[in-house]
User: Which sequence fits this backbone?
């Protein structure tokens, strides 16, 4: 699910009512700017300087957002917890601690944080929080029912992955003849249509949340967008190519190049 319009859970906060110290305020604003520009490492450094002046829950929550962006979930958890200790109603700190818990596969704790954030948010970001809570509950249910040990059974009816809407070839620069070599096709240029309502792959790559959403999407008899299918296949190919014992075999071309069949044991 997409966050509610107008509320950015990843954005660092501008409000800080816990400190009147001008230098901490200046550093916080400088760190916020670095974060918005994508310079997360510098933002962390600046927020650290600000915290030596004032242990503000807003600054702690902002640095937690930086740590999440870097995949440093333990540090994000620590900063978010410190922020919550100072301000138990800090919604973004609760949300970010929930995300950190989720990344560390602590789904019960994550669900508690998201639920608490929803109480204090009073409707703001309701869709995103409800989605996160649902994802945690789904994982907990799957773990209880050993679904992850029987994932192949969840995919019955999806043995054939139709790719009729995927280009069969990409044009060759300087050559009017089409090329059928899939390696020449740049799947990154594929656009995701606005009406697509399925799971997406973001900057964090293939995450557990994406896998959960994909399973639910398949259960609803819906298809994964071709761009993300290409992403998964590319990742698999890179993993296999890195294996020293990989053996390449040649297969006859399929009679219908617009579809592919997958199997395994």
Assistant:
């Amino acid at each position: 699910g997409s966050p509610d319009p107008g509320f950015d859970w990843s954005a660092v906060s501008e409000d800080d009512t816990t400190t009147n110290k001008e230098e901490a305020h200046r550093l916080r604003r400088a760190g916020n700017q670095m974060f918005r520009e994508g310079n997360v490492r510098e933002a962390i450094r600046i927020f650290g300087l600000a915290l030596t002046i004032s242990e503000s829950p807003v600054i702690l929550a902002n640095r937690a957002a930086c740590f999440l962006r870097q995949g440093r979930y333990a540090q994000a958890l620590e900063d978010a917890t410190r922020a919550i200790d100072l301000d138990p109603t800090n919604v973004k700190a609760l949300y970010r601690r929930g995300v950190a818990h989720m990344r560390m596969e602590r789904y019960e704790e994550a669900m508690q944080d998201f639920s608490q954030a929803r109480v204090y948010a009073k409707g703001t970001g309701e869709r995103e929080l409800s989605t996160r809570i649902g994802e945690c509950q789904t994982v907990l249910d799957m773990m209880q029912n050993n679904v992850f040990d029987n994932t192949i059974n969840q995919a019955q009816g999806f043995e054939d992955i139709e790719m009729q809407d995927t280009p069969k070839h990409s044009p060759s620069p300087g050559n009017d003849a089409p090329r059928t070599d899939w390696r020449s096709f740049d799947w990154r240029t594929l656009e995701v249509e606005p009406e697509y309502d399925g799971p997406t792959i973001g900057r964090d790559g293939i995450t557990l949340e994406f896998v959960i959403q994909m399973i639910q999407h398949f259960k609803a008899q819906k298809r994964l967008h071709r761009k993300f299918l290409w992403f998964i296949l590319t990742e698999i190919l890179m993993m296999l190519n890195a294996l020293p014992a990989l053996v390449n075999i040649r297969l006859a071309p399929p009679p219908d190049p617009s579809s592919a069949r997958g199997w395994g044991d």
Summary: The mean pLDDT is 77. Residues 24 and 54 are 7 Å apart (CA to CA). The two ends are 32 Å apart (CA to CA). The chain is about 50% helix and 5% strand.
